[in-house]
């Protein structure tokens, strides 16, 4: 099942739980706006190349739309539509005054020079500058983009609208980025894990963790878990996989990856098959990479008691059902990986205020927001007698539906 079908399915189930009016139900599913533009730029060799760029703006009932921009050769409108919709529910669950959006350009950033990437970014911004904005739609980095991409968007947008640091988040610190933003998603995952384990009288210390994906989110999550006394017994990324039943020395693994650009040949553990990390013996499994990695083929072999969805849509609905029957507790992506967008919100607030927070304040507020969201999800689970995924979706959909009705959507 693709990401859009799975997201729609979860929305339909949540709408049924809430007893949504059929017209409102349909209105909430349809994106507010879909933008598709052609980006033609000169390459460094003088030839010209064209890419398709787009932005899906899903909902603005609760505030400006918010979501990443990804550069990837297989940027798929269906997937981006699903992720835009997911952002609408995610920002509502986190209680941020935003709606959802997502966008991208169908290119391979690895095949472009820095100057070519800059030209593509600036042309894309020129095409959409009047449809994004501080109080309209606030982009952020995603797959294949980074703080430098956001700096180019900020600069190009500012040519039309005056200096506007709050138009994007995930910027370099020097241009108004927030302290703590880089670690935010990983730290949020760890806060979410702590809150869930606490419900069962457990803590991170001495528990065994397997982490699939060792990029920004996975490496930060692993570092914080290691600091809190948890044992990371298996780690993988596209370059390889490492296991150590006594716990991997995460700082040493980070140094190794920085030098070798790979997890291979790390002396502090044994090599293992990439796919085996998902079914490795552990207490907590944290998928931090791609969607759909837990499916009907491998779900029955998962040994973890808890799954924390740090990636977007890592668990297929079929796997969801298999894991539920096994008694595995799943903390859904719509909440578990919301630390990034929460600190993006803090960045936006700081830009509007013209004031920079200390990192301690950012992390304190992140924990407070994630704690409140977890309590809200648990309350919804209790009210509707449902699992955490449905509790989170029902919470998000209910908030957006309520805001839509209050604004007078039928007028």
TrEMBL record:
<dbReference type="InterPro" id="IPR006097">
    <property type="entry name" value="Glu/Leu/Phe/Val/Trp_DH_dimer"/>
</dbReference>
<dbReference type="GO" id="GO:0004352">
    <property type="term" value="F:glutamate dehydrogenase (NAD+) activity"/>
</dbReference>
<dbReference type="Pfam" id="PF00208">
    <property type="entry name" value="ELFV_dehydrog"/>
</dbReference>
<dbReference type="GO" id="GO:0000166">
    <property type="term" value="F:nucleotide binding"/>
</dbReference>
<protein>
    <recommendedName>
        <fullName>Glutamate dehydrogenase</fullName>
    </recommendedName>
</protein>
<dbReference type="GO" id="GO:0005739">
    <property type="term" value="C:mitochondrion"/>
</dbReference>
<dbReference type="InterPro" id="IPR006095">
    <property type="entry name" value="Glu/Leu/Phe/Val/Trp_DH"/>
</dbReference>
<keyword id="KW-0520">NAD</keyword>
<dbReference type="GO" id="GO:0006538">
    <property type="term" value="P:L-glutamate catabolic process"/>
</dbReference>
<keyword id="KW-0560">Oxidoreductase</keyword>
<dbReference type="InterPro" id="IPR006096">
    <property type="entry name" value="Glu/Leu/Phe/Val/Trp_DH_C"/>
</dbReference>
<dbReference type="InterPro" id="IPR046346">
    <property type="entry name" value="Aminoacid_DH-like_N_sf"/>
</dbReference>
<dbReference type="InterPro" id="IPR014362">
    <property type="entry name" value="Glu_DH"/>
</dbReference>
<dbReference type="InterPro" id="IPR036291">
    <property type="entry name" value="NAD(P)-bd_dom_sf"/>
</dbReference>
<dbReference type="InterPro" id="IPR033524">
    <property type="entry name" value="Glu/Leu/Phe/Val_DH_AS"/>
</dbReference>
<dbReference type="Pfam" id="PF02812">
    <property type="entry name" value="ELFV_dehydrog_N"/>
</dbReference>
<dbReference type="InterPro" id="IPR033922">
    <property type="entry name" value="NAD_bind_Glu_DH"/>
</dbReference>
<comment type="similarity">
    <text>Belongs to the Glu/Leu/Phe/Val dehydrogenases family.</text>
</comment>
């Amino acid at each position: 099942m693709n990401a859009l079908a799975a997201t729609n399915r979860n929305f339909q189930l949540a709408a049924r739980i809430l007893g949504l009016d059929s017209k409102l139900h349909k209105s909430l599913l349809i994106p507010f706006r879909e933008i598709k533009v052609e980006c033609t730029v000169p390459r460094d060799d003088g030839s010209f190349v064209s890419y398709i760029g787009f932005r899906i703006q899903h909902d603005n009932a609760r505030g400006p739309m918010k979501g990443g921009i990804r550069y990837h050769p297989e940027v798929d409108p269906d997937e981006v539509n699903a992720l835009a919709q997911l952002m609408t529910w995610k920002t509502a669950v986190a209680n941020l005054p935003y709606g959802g959006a997502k966008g991208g350009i169908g290119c391979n950033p690895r095949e472009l020079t820095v100057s070519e990437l800059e030209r593509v970014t600036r042309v894309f911004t020129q095409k959409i500058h009047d449809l994004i904005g501080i109080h309209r739609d606030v982009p952020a980095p995603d797959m294949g983009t980074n703080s430098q991409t956001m700096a180019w968007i900020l600069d190009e947008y500012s040519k039309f609208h005056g200096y506007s640091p709050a138009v994007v988040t995930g910027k370099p610190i020097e241009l108004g980025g927030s302290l703590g933003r880089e670690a935010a998603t990983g730290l949020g995952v760890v806060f979410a894990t702590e809150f869930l384990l606490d419900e069962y009288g457990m803590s991170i210390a001495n528990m065994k963790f397997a982490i699939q994906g060792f990029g920004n989110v996975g490496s930060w999550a692993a570092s914080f878990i290691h600091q809190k006394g948890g044992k990371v017994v298996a780690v993988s990324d596209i370059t390889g996989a490492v296991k150590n039943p006594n716990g991997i020395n995460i700082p040493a693994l980070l140094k190794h990856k920085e030098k070798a650009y790979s997890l291979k040949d790390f002396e502090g553990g044994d090599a293992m098959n990439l796919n085996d990390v998902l079914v490795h013996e552990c207490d907590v499994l944290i998928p931090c990479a791609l969607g759909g990695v837990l499916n009907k083929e491998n779900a029955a072999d998962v040994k973890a008691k808890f799954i924390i969805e740090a990636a977007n849509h890592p668990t297929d609905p079929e796997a969801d059902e298999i894991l539920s029957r096994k008694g595995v507790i799943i903390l859904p992506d719509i909440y578990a990986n919301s630390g990034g967008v929460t600190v993006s919100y803090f960045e936006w607030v700081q830009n509007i205020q013209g004031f920079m927070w200390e990192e301690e304040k950012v992390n304190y507020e992140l924990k407070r927001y994630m704690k409140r969201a977890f309590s809200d999800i648990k309350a919804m689970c209790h009210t509707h007698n449902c699992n955490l995924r449905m509790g989170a979706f029902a919470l998000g959909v209910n908030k957006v539906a309520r805001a839509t009705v209050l604004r007078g959507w039928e007028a």
